[in-house]
Amino acid sequence: MKKVIYSILICLGMVVLSSCEDTSADISKVTYFASLELKGETAMKIKLNDTYVEPGFVALEGDEDITSKVEISGVVNSAKSDIYTLTYSVANVDGFSVSEQRNVLVAAPAFASAYYGESKVGVRHYVNAPIHIVDNNDGTYSIDDIMGGFQFHGLNAGLEPAYDLHAEAIIKLEADNSISLVSLGSWAPELGLTLGLNSGSYDPVTGVIELDVKYGSTNQLLVTLTK
């Protein structure tokens, strides 16, 4: 009787082992996730009415080149000063996708233009924030963030639209190319920060704007806008 039971257990073990081997063979598979690398800069600049030339990109799935499968969404309208975002995406054979972005600034020769903002407060330093200055046609200009992107692009990136982190302002370009603050719009009152403008200047040759912004009670926020 013992021999019979022992023989049955051996047979059951062989069946289970065979079943496990078959199952493993069915689900064993290697997945290579796609990789995507942009050539050139991810924050580019071109002049108004110049032609945008795509720097290129490379996509791989393991050792296989899948660059031809990359899709690009977004367009650059070089006839209008703005910052345009191009999104590059590609998926592997299993549908897992990866994406990268490139910003292209179309710069106008006038003071009113799109800019990249650089902001510094102490050890905090952020670059390539999209900033826009619009001519109000009354001697003043609207800037969509006098902080140069310090809050919405750097310190608290991703918190909009829940919080209004753009500090809109009306500014004036004086005859000597200094910049004065006319008025400041409302923004994120929950932060309890007082803003102002200590000084500002515009270099018409380089197109660079320098702003010394009063940020809070003691901090100095240095902003540089380039196009």
Automatic annotation (TrEMBL):
Chain ranges of the Pesticidal crystal protein Cry22Aa Ig-like domain: 36-106
Transmembrane feature ranges: none
Domain of life: Bacteria
Gene3D superfamilies: Immunoglobulins
Name by which UniProt lists this protein: DUF5011 domain-containing protein
Gene source species: Bacteroides clarus
